[in-house]
Write a structure and sequence with these properties.
Length: about 200
């Protein structure tokens, strides 16, 4: 493998510095209230250097979202739960999602704000949502096929779980006792057993 030159290392360091600065300013001020000039000033560089690495603010935003994406952590979490029964996996999954959202709250706040003020962001995030929901839905489908869960639309279950956990995170509520009760309700419903 070819060794990187000092110049390539410096270019990567600068690019990362600009991404970190953009992440911080986007989180503090919102994307709409952050200019390339603001990012350059905060990073201590000329605006032209930002344009050397990125085409513009939209390009920076996309890179920030990709860099801080929760998807790798979610993939890793799901890989560890793949062979567990739903009664064990769903509580671990819900706690794990909450932890990922806590760790990545900076990027989540940017995403939430952007969805409100930038309708194109909904389209950009659709792929992320579909991938995330799809991974969890496929796990639930395996549990349905194994006869552990009754046949149902796993995408509805995933959406219910994800949105509920997201609201806990947005409202800065602790995971306990809400997550355990949410999972219990998803697994067993709210109808009294004698009414089934």
């Amino acid at each position: 493998m070819k060794q990187r030159t000092r110049r390539e290392e410096q270019a990567e360091w600068r690019r990362n510095q600009l991404l970190d600065t953009a992440l911080r300013l986007f989180g503090q001020n919102g994307v709409e209230n952050t200019s390339i000039k603001d990012i350059a000033e905060e990073a201590g560089v000329a605006p032209g250097l930002v344009y050397h690495y990125f085409r513009g603010k939209e390009d920076l935003l996309v890179e920030v979202l990709q860099r801080r994406s929760p998807m790798p952590a979610l993939r890793e979490l799901l890989a560890g739960l793949r062979d567990l029964p739903a009664t064990r996996a769903l509580p671990l999954l819900a706690q794990g999602i909450y932890a990922i959202m806590t760790e990545r709250r900076d990027i989540l706040s940017i995403m939430f704000r952007e969805v409100i003020v930038n309708p194109q962001m909904i389209e950009r995030l659709a792929g992320f949502r579909e991938e995330m929901f799809g991974m969890v839905a496929r796990y639930l489908e395996t549990r349905i096929a194994a006869g552990e869960l009754r046949p149902h639309n796993p995408h509805t279950t995933v959406q219910t779980l994800a949105v509920s956990i997201m609201m806990l995170r947005v409202m800065n509520l602790p995971p306990d006792p809400y997550i355990a009760e949410l999972v219990e309700t998803l697994l067993h419903g709210i109808l009294a057993p004698d009414r089934l």
